[in-house]
Amino acid sequence: MKPGALARELARIVGQEGVLWRAEDLMLYEYDALSSLRQPDAVVFPRTTEQVVQIAKLATRENLPVVPRGAGTGLSGGAVASEGGILVGFSRMKEILEIDIESQRARVQPGVVNLDLSLAVSDQGYYFAPDPSSQKACTIGGNVAENAGGPHTLAYGVTTNHVLGLEVVLPGGEVIHTGAKSWDRPGYDLTGLVVGSEGTLGIVTEITVRLSRKPEAAKTLLAVYDRVLDATRTVVAITARGITPAALEMMDGFTLRAVEQATHAGYPMDCAAVLLIEVEGMREAAEEQASEIEAVCNENHARAVRRARTDEERDLLWKGRRTDEERDLLWKGRKNAFGAVGRISPSYYVQDGVIPRTRLPEMLEFIGEVEKRYDLRIGNIFHAGDGNLHPLIMFDARDQGQSQRVLKAAQEIITKCVEMGGSITGEHGVGIEKIELMPLVFSPDDLDLMRRIKEVFNPQGRLNPGKLLPAGRMCGELRVQVSTGGER
Ligand SMILES: Cc1cc2nc3c(=O)[nH]c(=O)nc-3n(C[C@H](O)[C@H](O)[C@H](O)COP(=O)(O)OP(=O)(O)OC[C@H]3O[C@@H](n4cnc5c(N)ncnc54)[C@H](O)[C@@H]3O)c2cc1C
Fold first, then answer.
1. Which of the four, 192, 234, 337, 406, has the lowest number of CB atoms within 10 Å?
2. What is this structure's pTM?
3. What is the torsion angle, in degrees rounded to the nearest 10, for the CA atoms of residue 290, residue 295, residue 299 and residue 301?
4. What pLDDT, in 10s, does the model give residues 150-174?
C-alpha cells in the first residue's frame, strides 16, 4: 500500500490530525533511546480502544506490521518499526480513567506518564510504586510492556507486582480482558504473560494498577567511599544483615562527578563511589534501620555517611518521585545521571545486566579490566540492591574503531553477567538489542515454548516483528548500531 493511501485509510479511523506519514515527520519515530534504525510507513495516534481495533484490522487486511509505542524511552529498540508498517503512538490515550482510593486501585490508558499517576493520587497519600529513572517521560503502557523496574524495585518489586488487569487488542482486532481489581483470578495468568512481552503479544489499551500507601517516614543516606570495593562490600553486608532498604543505589566517582557538574546536588567530587540508601516505614522503624545501615557503612570503611536532614537537602538527593511538599523525595542526582553523562561524552552506550548482588565486588573488578583492555572509559551506575548494573561506556561514534571496541566490551560484560548466574537484562528488555543473546539464558526447548505462545497471540508475527524472540539460529551478539547513532 502506498504511504499516501495508508495515511488516508488511517485518517478515516482517527481523523487527519492523528496521522503522520511524510518522511520529515517520520524521522522523529525512526529511533527510541537505543538506536536509529528504520522509519515506519505511518504513525497513528488513536484515542480509543475501538480505534486501535480498527487499526489492527486495517493492518491485517493489508498484511502490515504493527508496532506499539509509548514515549520511546526504551533502551533496547523495542519501539522502533524495524520492518516498517504502522507505528501506533499512545500519546493521545493518556486519561486516568478511574481512581479508587478505597480499593487502592487505578485504571489508566496506556499513554499516561508514569509520574503523572503518582502526582494524581499524592494528595490522598498514595503513589504508583514502579519508578523507572525515566518516570517523568515514560508511559505506563511502556512500563507494562518492558516490566520496568527502578530504584525502589528492591523493596517493592517491578511493574508486574503492581498490575492487576489489562485490556489488550490482539493483532486480528479481538479485544481480551485479563485479571481484575482483585488479586486472585482463576485460569491462566494472562496478565503476567502480557506484562514484559515487549509488545509482541498484544496492544495494551487499558491497565488496572495497584496504588501504594506512602510510608509514614523515610530516611535518605549518602555513604561516601574512597574505594569502590568498600561500597560494593557494603551492599552485600546490608542485605546479609536482613535489612531491605527501599532503595540501594551506587554511583562510581567518575559518574558522580559528571552528575555533580550537571545538577549541583552537593556530592563530594573527590571520592571513588557513593551509595544512596533509603529506608521507609513507620517512623521508629525507619530511624532504627537507618542507624543500623550507618553502622554497616562505617564497618565497611565509608569515609562519611551523610543523612538528608532537611527537606531541601532531600530534594537535592532525590528527584522524580514527588509525593508531597513535606516529604519530597526527589533523587535529583541519580535520576539525571544518564543525561549528565551525555554532557561529557559525544556518545555513550548504556549496558543493562543483572547478577546476584553478592558478586558485585568481583563484577566491578571485571569491568575495570575490560575498561583497560579496550582502552575505553566506563562509568558505573547500579541499582545495587538488586544486582542490576548499568555500565555506561563512553565513546565517539565518529570513530569506527572505538565503536567496535564498545560492542566487544559490552558483549564481554553481559557474557560475564550470565556466567555469574545473572541474566542479559535487568530491566531494559531484549528488544532488538539482545535478541541474539536469548540462547545464552534459555534452552532451545524454552525458546520453542515461548515461540508457540507468541503464535497463539500473534499468529502471523506482524505485531512488533523482530523483537524479543530470535527466529532461528543466532550468533550470540549484541545488535546495536553504535556507529549510526545507537548511543545516548
Ligand atoms: C534516562 C533513562 C532512564 C531509564 N531508567 C529506567 C529504569 O530505571 N528502569 C527501567 O526499567 N527502565 C528504564 N529506562 C528504559 C525505559 O524508560 C523503560 O523501558 C520504559 O518502561 C519505556 O516506556 P516508554 O513509554 O518509553 O515505552 P517505549 O520505549 O515507547 O516502548 C517500549 C516497549 O513497549 C512496547 N509498548 C509501548 N506501549 C505499548 C502498549 N500500549 N502496548 C503494548 N506494547 C507497548 C513497545 O512496542 C516497546 O517494545 C530508562 C530510559 C532512559 C532513557
1. 192
2. 0.92
3. 60
4. 888 889 999 999 999 999 999 999 9
